[in-house]
């Protein structure tokens, strides 16, 4: 594996201990380390995509599910081969700094603001996320932030900034430091508001109903776009560049895009993600 990457070495050791497929133990070149967001894991999408990729290519994927910020940091350190993330501004910085190559549009869903059905801050009446956040602050209603440098956290901070509100020192603003699924659980338990990606909310709510309702949705600013990025082998020669390329090509392939477009229909009655490979970014308002 790559020099200085104790995480990558630990990943292979763990795989061997857990009885990883023979291809991984016999041929490290067939192991691909994917750093991705908790939303792709918590929604269940990876449970569909990764087995299909492994069957089609013979590669074995080790998934590290963290916030987009952490996934991108792993790419900068050469601790992953390929990234599937949803934090556009941070992704662009990664590319500008030369740590990523071949960034491709994969899919989108959107963010929603959820909270207790009785809606003590009255955000159902809000027309924009900016207004909704202002109402939450004015009511001093509990808000649960992931606080984990994820793409969702970055979006949330941008919405507070747009509302000209700094919630950091406020008693009603709490950071969980957890992924999306766990943050939804905390919000439901405490009767608070949070920003969530629609896919994870619908999947979690279907699996185990949460005492949360979607209270604001549909604004263009709440679009949630995912890209796949290969870690630059010129910066980190020991990354599995061939495996990263194979994974990237798979997730933008017609077969994977069809899986993405169907995912969730049988569970919640509608797709949790919408395939976008090959589309122009400006067609999504990017």
Automatic annotation (TrEMBL):
Domain PBP: 28-254
Keywords from the named record: Signal
Domain of life: Bacteria
ATP-binding is among the record's keywords: no
Signal peptide limits: 1-25
Signal is among the record's keywords: yes
UniProt cross-references to PANTHER family, sorted A to Z: EXTRACELLULAR TUNGSTATE BINDING PROTEIN
Protein name: Tungsten ABC transporter substrate-binding protein
